[in-house]
């Protein structure tokens, strides 16, 4: 008799979690139909309400023509460091707000442009490019061996680097 009651409690838990998942799914569809936007796949979870460019070429073109700086995030879906950074980036309200002032691109593959890997092709790495299409080698993270790497604990540094990318732009143009 004891085993049976354990079993029914377990089944109940499974049922509860499925229902919760279903509700969560419903909520999402309502929000996506409310305002038209690019397919969510482009954000890859870095900020679903932000506008993301599809390719490096498109990002460069938009940066140049809008005179907005470009922020490129290199990451991989199966890299725990990328996933951890993505989570804090997506949940950071100030970063998500500030990101609207950038042309945005996140990549899960490397481009042929060597300028985007000044010190190697590691992930996650975040680079800023100004509208004159110059990589901002002066805006780096805190690691000397991986200049453009950020850990989740570096999120406030990433935020101030985003501010820096915008501020320097104003003084130079």
UniProtKB/TrEMBL annotation:
Q: Indicate where this protein resides in the cell.
A: Endoplasmic reticulum; Secreted
One GO MF annotation is: dystroglycan binding
Q: What is one cellular component GO term in this UniProt entry?
A: extracellular region
Mind telling me which SUPFAM superfamilies this protein's record contains? Thioredoxin-like
Supply the Pfam families for this chain: Thioredoxin_7 (PF13899)
What start and end residues bound the annotated signal peptide? 1-21
The protein's superkingdom reads Eukaryota
Sorted keywords for this record are: Endoplasmic reticulum, Secreted, Signal
Task: Spell out the PANTHER family in the cross-references.
Answer: ANTERIOR GRADIENT PROTEIN 2 HOMOLOG, ANTERIOR GRADIENT PROTEIN-RELATED
The entry's protein name is AGR2 protein
What species is this protein from? Answer: Oxyruncus cristatus (sharpbill)
């Amino acid at each position: 008799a004891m085993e049976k009651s354990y079993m029914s409690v377990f089944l109940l838990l499974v049922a509860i979690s499925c229902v919760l998942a279903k509700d969560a799914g419903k909520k999402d569809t309502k929000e996506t139909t409310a305002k038209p936007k690019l397919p969510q796949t482009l954000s890859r979870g870095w900020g679903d309400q932000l506008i993301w460019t599809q390719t490096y070429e498109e990002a460069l073109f938009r940066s140049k023509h809008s005179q907005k700086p470009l922020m490129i995030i290199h990451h991989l879906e199966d890299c725990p460091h990328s996933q951890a950074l993505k989570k804090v980036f997506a949940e950071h309200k100030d970063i998500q707000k500030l990101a609207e002032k950038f042309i945005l691109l996140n990549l899960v593959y490397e481009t042929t442009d060597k300028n985007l890997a000044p010190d190697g092709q590691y992930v996650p790495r975040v680079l800023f490019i100004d509208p004159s299409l110059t990589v901002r080698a002066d805006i780096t993270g805190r690691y000397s061996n991986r200049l453009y790497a950020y850990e989740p604990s570096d999120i406030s540094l990433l935020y101030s680097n985003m501010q820096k990318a915008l501020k320097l732009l104003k003084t130079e143009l």
